[in-house]
Amino acid sequence: MIIVAEKEGDDNLEPPDWFLSREVSEAVLNLLGDYRFHTKGYYVSLHAEENKCPVLPSVKNALDIYRAPVFIERIKKAGLEVPEFEVIPRPKPERVVMLPLNPFSKNSLKVVKSDSQYYKFFKSLSMDYHYPVVHVKVEGRVEEAIMHLSEVRNGEEEKKRIAEKVFEIFGVPLGKIFVERIDGKLRPFYFMPLSKEEIDIDLAIASYENWVLRRNIQL
Amino acid sequence: MRIGCFAETYNFKYKEEVEALKIFEATAKSLGHEFEVTGKDILDRMDEFDSIFIRATTDPLFTSYVVSRIAEERGKKVIDDSESIRICSDKIALYYRLKKNGVPIPRTFPFYGDFAELERITEKIGFPIVVKAPNSRFSLYVEKANDFQELLAITKRFLKRSKAVILQEFIPSNFDWRIGVLRGEVIYACKYLFPKGGWRIRDVINNRVAWGKVRAVSRESLPEKLKKVALKAAKSVGNGLYGVDIKQFGEEFLVIEVNDNPTIMHGMEDAKDRDIYERIISALVE
């Protein structure tokens, strides 16, 4: 098992540049945290897959998880409750949470509080009206859960349950899940990459070991 | 069957492309199907269609990818499928596939920014070297380096956009073959001629962008070896609709690229083999 991560001084981890320069033949846990298209995290998973190695995450899931409509479609299909959403090609001011359809920027979730704010957000998220924007009809409070595989650091049980389910569906080890808290329930609707500072490698590895152990027990 | 065709405003820029869309529509109707060209609202109207035909530019970062994935999640037939988009939109992924499947290609190396490796790679390829950004298309972000200094400058510039680039042996020619493949069959063929003084179909000549001409060639008249190479390259990606770009070097054929979502313009790609519309519509409804 190869663990690819950017953390100096730990011989158990393999730096991505070294990993990408050689042929590999083992299972790979990719802990780079950002797996969007054309990132190093994406290419580590691609390199593993094309060398026929099992890898977390797969490139298909890495592409799916950051696209809000695909993320919502898949978790809804898997039985999780989600808020309603709409893909909007032209501005239509509403008090919603706005998301980019195309993941060109990282910190891009916007909570609309006024019409003037709405137009500003639409312009930036659509990259000057070039791309559609996703409206999520959120009535409750927006919260986040930083996910290390199926673990959420200092998280309540319900957030852990959501993280576990998201990890089961997509197999993406690291990320930030955005949820709506409403009537005591949590409804996930968006997923974003983690920055280097947000990644806790030790927690991720411990979480991976727990996950493997649980799967073995279940088997 | 109801076919939804996803197009964007730029698909209506050239009259030949608009004419092609009209022929697709007329062909579908003549075969007893509905065909509607629609824009970004297709994502909210997905359930109105049985199959989806994507004509807008495909890329995992664009709307077209979401259209393809949602269509797949809802069990619809879709051209282009998301796997083909993912492979063809990334020259690194395409390189892996072509290499793994033994498709003849020029000497090629992916480069991830470890500059200590660069000199070793240049020794294996030799100059000039073609540098491609992973998401290059229509010859954009494809440049030729004649020496190491040029190579350094180009790779550094390209690596600002992506964490990887492709370095490839330069094969001199006056044209690229474009072989249209659908579900494992050659459906059309063209020569994409380079503009005078250029080395790619879209080039910059005397500081002006110049496009080469398209010359259709009947698929029946193609050399068997060329067809075989094109089919092998397409198969290494999937079973959809592709435009395979090939360099002819004497009797040898080397694959440069496999493109999903190949350009289809009336009077160009369809000039010799006019049944391409019927074949594509049939693939969408079967």
Automatic annotation (TrEMBL), chain A:
InterPro entries: RLAN_dom (IPR025839). It holds the Pfam family RLAN. Residues 24-185 form the RimK-like ATPgrasp N-terminal domain. This is RimK-like ATPgrasp N-terminal domain-containing protein.
From TrEMBL, chain B:
One of its GO terms (biological process) is SOS response. It comes from the Archaea. InterPro entries: ATP-grasp, ATP-grasp_RimK-type, ATP_grasp_subdomain_1. Residues 95-285 form the ATP-grasp domain. GO terms for cellular component: cytoplasm. Transmembrane segments: none annotated. Coiled coil: none annotated. Pfam families: RimK (PF08443). One of its GO terms (molecular function) is ATP binding. Keywords: ATP-binding, Ligase, Nucleotide-binding. This is RimK family alpha-L-glutamate ligase. It comes from Archaeoglobus fulgidus. The lineage of its organism: Archaea, Methanobacteriati, Methanobacteriota, Archaeoglobi, Archaeoglobales.
